[in-house]
Amino acid sequence: TQLLEQSPQFLSIQEGENLTVYCNSSSVFSSLQWYRQEPGEGPVLLVTVVTGGEVKKLKRLTFQFGDARKDSSLHITAAQPGDTGLYLCAGGGRVTNAGKSTFGDGTTLTVKP
Amino acid sequence: EPEVTQTPSHQVTQMGQEVILRCVPISNHLYFYWYRQILGQKVEFLVSFYNNEISEKSEIFDDQFSVERPDGSNFTLKIRSTKLEDSAMYFCASSVDRGADTQYFGPGTRLTVL
User: Which terminus of chain A is more solvent-facing, meaning fewer CB atoms within 10 Å of its CB: N or C?
Assistant: First the structure.
């Protein structure tokens, strides 16, 4: 069974601060996705990382996939109140798992103005 | 921008009743999925579907659950005899190919079993 652990579970920071959220597993994933989920809504895909060591940037968000494809991080620079939400990582297995995603527990981010 | 849609947004049912949750995947997508999220818990995979058959299912997806693509646009999840513990958000997702890296999720159906 593939498991993904996210840390921290909760994060509350002031506007303008930087933060990093981690997603770790003992399993290798063919790809890893980061989603953002608002209350009562479905996860919205932010980014997919596929190659070990890959770094992707989405405005103030920087995503990195570990070299061994077992872990990932999401770094937000100069956080804004609009960044408040639940951030989920999910791992995909292209070959053996028919594309299903295994989700982490999520990190609830609160950015205070 | 194309999106996955789900109906109803909220379904309330009595224990033991059958419910059908409906999804319209993105039109050129070929792989379809159902996930559920119990309140306060993680999103859990239920089933994946391709070429009119189940590709993979989880332990949660027991004989009470079934999926169907009755026509070219809809993808349904049926729960034959609902239990209290089936109360959750149910998310449909679709992808253009086999990889999870292209999965797009619908807004979900909140199922409440009384």
Answer: N
Residue B5 C-alpha, separation from nearest chain A C-alpha, in angstroms: 10
Instruction: Report the residue count for chain A.
Output: 113
d(CA B109, nearest CA chain A) in Å? 9
What band does A93 get if pLDDT is binned at 50, 70 and 90?
low
Overall average pLDDT of the A48-70 stretch: 94
Q: Using alpha carbons only, give the angle A34, A37, A43 rounded to the nearest 5 degrees.
A: 65
Helices (H) and strands (E) in chain B, counts: 0, 11
Specify the 3-state DSSP secondary structure of A2: coil
Of residues A41, A88, A99, nearest to B100 (C-beta): A99
Average confidence (pLDDT) over A3-19: 95
